[in-house]
Automatic annotation (TrEMBL):
Residues 292-468 form the 3-hydroxyacyl-CoA dehydrogenase NAD binding domain. The lineage of its organism: Bacteria, Pseudomonadati, Pseudomonadota, Alphaproteobacteria, Rhodobacterales. Keywords: Fatty acid metabolism, Isomerase, Lipid degradation, Lipid metabolism, Lyase, Multifunctional enzyme, NAD, Oxidoreductase, Peroxisome. This is 3-hydroxyacyl-CoA dehydrogenase. It comes from Sulfitobacter undariae. Transmembrane segments: none annotated. Pfam families: 3HCDH, 3HCDH_N, ECH_1. The keyword Glycoprotein does not apply. GO terms for biological process: fatty acid beta-oxidation. The keyword Lipid metabolism applies. Pathway: Lipid metabolism; fatty acid beta-oxidation. It is found in: Peroxisome.
Amino acid sequence: MSNPVSYNAHGPVAVLRIQNPPVNALSQAVRQGLSEAMDRAEADADIKAVVIVGDGRAFIAGADITEFGKPPMEPNLPDLCSRIEASPLLVIASMHGVSLGGGLEVALSAHYRIAQPDARVGLPEVHLGLLPGAGGTQRLPRLTGAAKGIEIMTSGGQVKAAAALEMGIIDKIETGDPQEVGLAYATELVNSAAPRRAVSELAGPEAMDWDAAYSGAVSKARGQNSPGAIVRAVQAASELPFAQGLARERALFTELLQGDQSKGMIHAFFNERAVSNLPELKGVTPRALNAIGVIGGGTMGAGIATAALLAKMQVVLIETGEAQASAARGRIEGNLQGALKRGKISQEQYDALTQDALVVAIDYASLSDVDLVIEAVFENMDVKKEVFGKLDAVCKQGAILASNTSYLDVDEIAAATSRRSDVIGLHFFSPAHVMKLLEIVVADKTALDVVATSFALGKAFGKISVRAGVCDGFIGNRILAVYRTAADHMVLDGASPYQIDRALTDFGFAMGPFAVADLAGLDIGWMTRKRKAPDRHADERVPTYIDKLCEEGHFGQKTGEGYYLYEKGQRASVPNPKIPALIAAEQADLRITPRDFSDEEIVRRYMCAMVNEAAKVVEEGIARRPADVDMVLLFGYGFPRYRGGPLKWADLQGLDTVLADIERYAQEDAWFWKPATLLKTLVADGRNFDDLNRAAGK
Ligand code: T1G
């Protein structure tokens, strides 16, 4: 392995250039290279200053996350930072692109920091379930003050150069080649006999009400540990001498690194990237994607059209009539107004998108030149087949025909066309221009370049795209149906929907299953139960108490009444007093004597049902890898990121304990709790889901 840190003396200034593509992560070789280069500079009497600069697109993106979980390798980053800071030479960091995590910590251990105007700095360790572990919690607040330092570290956000200059994180902004800019600054400092400025020698940050800050961070963190730990580390910076504060930081960092939450979040970090890297697509060229057709301008269609417009594509949206077309345009403009308000687009971009890029029509002939069409009409197979037949007739050769169906058989839809290899499923989640998840449903005959084009579309839309096979509900909705049923079974057996919702939000879900049902619309579950009724197995327990509410026309938030009552426009969660009686009536019909459930049992059953069905989804090849299921649940179903996803959670619990519980539950209900074969095989072999992820490769 060649040394990733080059050393070049320019008069009295030594340039240390890090070359570790793609983002100059601080691997062991980089750390060692920096340490040796500092030794070399200090051994040369002619050298008065050192410039540290990154090659390529970034200064340094942080510690090398691939090293986490492996035995630590010297030199460790905190010691390297202290070593750099202690140098008798002037040390200058010349920053460009991103300087994140350990990268900013290296820069903070320098004596001066200069940056390009478009450079960004940050300490995003909180997104990995960690805190800055190389002095960041001690040095940053010495420059920014405690409150600002806590805000930067608990948000994990990136700070633009101008703001960083304002806060004192950097000393100067200069446009130019980062190495030249760094050299010029170093020369200026040497010539002016500028003093060494060790940040660690600055006074600690001001005191504050640390317990209030701590509980504030904890309450916002929804169960994640690192924000609270960050506050305690900054408190140490304020109350202890630097060395002791550093030791406190190290202890807090080590505790987080050894905990499950950082394992879950690092799993999420790597797999949200890996999930779209399908080996079978290597070398496959996607088709052109300049103009997109959308069929249907309801919430989903308008959201998809918005996502395409924001991805700088031409959009032709088809509706059934002038009034519907006008309403669809209104929805899209409303979505874009939101993007305008959030600063994602400028006014002139808004005008260009709505006046030039978007065409809303009622004649399918307008689609004759689009590269790909996404159908987002009513979830009815006959309607979809009719639409695809018309698309097949008007779209150009090579145009891709995609359905946004959330559960219907894409093979059957494809069969309604003469171009089955050009048909695919693109399952967006509402609102389609906001939700990150896109399930790419690959049908039997779908061509590989159509799959590649769909992943290219997902990337252009900024989505986390996951490959799914064809089955009822694909990956996410199929698993949702099962863990939702587990919750319904617990209601019939005695747990209240409100206790279940609370137990699961305490576990880390954004919302519990009954609040989600109210949000999505109780009519959806009602229609699904009616649709599946003909195929229902005799042993299947299907609660029907909520259907009584649907028969009265109460569908949740959209009608103001569901499991909860919603004052006009409120999202208040006031339990609906009708529900307990409906449950009691069904329990009486089924001669069930309700029993108590602990929150722990509720979470355990809910998670075991999710893991069991997820294992079946992997076993059947509907999902390519266990990590793909994890990404679906994280990005489409509000699963807590710091748990990494249901199958990562199961690995961390121990698959043998999960299987043991499922087998115990199966004694009550053998049909619902039939253990997944894959789960039994993994336990028998002493393997886990991550072993399957590694075997499937990137
Ligand atoms: N370590 C290892 N690999 C990394 C990496 C890192 N820190 N950052 C990115 N990569 C890989 C990534 O997996 C992908 O690989 C490729 O680089 C391009 O990334 C002690 C403990 C820097 C803003 O959390 O936020 O320092 O998929 O696709 O969209 O206190 O990557 O190509 O094989 O994301 O242009 C703190 C994490 C670490 C920054 C670039 N730092 N990275 O985004 O490209 S912990 C971070 C990012 C730490 C110290 C603590 C982004 C990016 P592949 P990409 P991008």
